[in-house]
Design a protein that fits this description.
Strand 2 and strand 3 form a beta hairpin. The protein has one domain: Chorismate lyase, CATH 3.40.1410. Strands 1, 2, 3, 4, 5, 6 and 7 form a 7-stranded antiparallel β-sheet that branches. With 201 residues, it is α+β, with helices and mostly antiparallel strands. The N terminus is likely disordered. It is globular and about 40 Å long.
C-alpha cells in the first residue's frame, strides 16, 4: 500500500506531462519573447504566402489534411462556439525550396455556408492566404501570439510529420480571425525554426 502511495505523485506528474496543454494567447508580441527577426514575422499583417514566395526559389503549399475534426480547447471560443465540437479543419505546410517553414491550421464552424467561404473546400494545395488577401470582402481581425510547447496538440502534429523537430523546445505561433459576409474562420500559423534564416533572394 505504501509503495502505491509513493508511486502516486510520479504517476500524477507523468499524466500532467502527457495531458495536451491549452496555449496562452497574448495580444502583444512582447509576451512571447521573440527575437527581432521573429517579431517581424509574427506581427507583419501582409500576406505570409507572399513574404515566403519572395524569400525562396520554389514555394509550395503541402496540404496535410482537410476534414471534419474536433476543435481544440483553445480555439472554440475564438470562433464563437460554446464548447469543443466538430469543425471544418485544414492543415498545411508552407514549404520554401522543399523545407517546411510554417505549419498552417485553419478551423471553420460547421455552420459556415458556401456563400461565406465559397472556395474553402476546393483549395487543394492552393494557398488559403492568397485567396483571403485577394478577396475585397474579407476582413481580418487582430493578431494574437503564443509560444507553443511540445505538449500542445499542434506541436505534436508537427513533430509527427517532421521528427527532426522533436528536440525543439518551443515554437512561436500567431492566429487571427477572418470575416466574410458574417462568417468567420480562424487561421493559426506556427513558425518552424527555418523561418528565421530566410532572407530576401
Amino acid at each position: 500500500m505504501q509503495d502505491k502511495l509513493k508511486a502516486a505523485p510520479e504517476v500524477l506528474r507523468n499524466a500532467q506531462i502527457q495531458r495536451p496543454r491549452v496555449a496562452h494567447w497574448f495580444d502583444h508580441v512582447n509576451a512571447v519573447q521573440a527575437t527581432p527577426v521573429m517579431q517581424d514575422w509574427l506581427t507583419n499583417r501582409d500576406s505570409l504566402t507572399a513574404r515566403l514566395v519572395a524569400r525562396c526559389g520554389q514555394f509550395r503549399v503541402q496540404r496535410l489534411s482537410q476534414h471534419k475534426a474536433m476543435c481544440l480547447r483553445d480555439e472554440y471560443a475564438a470562433i464563437g462556439l460554446t464548447q469543443a465540437v466538430k469543425v471544418h479543419e485544414r492543415e498545411v505546410f508552407l514549404r520554401c525550396d522543399g523545407i517546411a517553414m510554417v505549419y498552417g491550421h485553419t478551423v471553420v464552424p460547421l455552420t459556415a455556408t458556401a456563400n461565406e467561404w465559397p472556395l474553402f473546400h476546393a483549395l487543394g494545395e492552393k494557398s488559403l492566404g492568397s485567396t483571403l488577401f485577394n478577396d475585397p470582402l474579407v476582413r481580418r481581425g487582430d493578431l494574437s501570439y503564443a509560444r507553443l510547447r511540445h505538449s500542445h496538440p499542434l506541436i505534436r502534429r508537427i513533430v509527427a510529420r517532421q521528427p527532426d523537430l522533436a528536440d525543439v523546445v518551443s515554437m512561436l505561433a500567431r492566429r487571427s480571425l477572418f470575416w466574410r459576409k458574417g462568417g468567420c474562420l480562424q487561421v493559426t500559423e506556427v513558425f518552424l525554426p527555418g523561418v528565421e534564416g530566410l532572407r530576401l533572394v
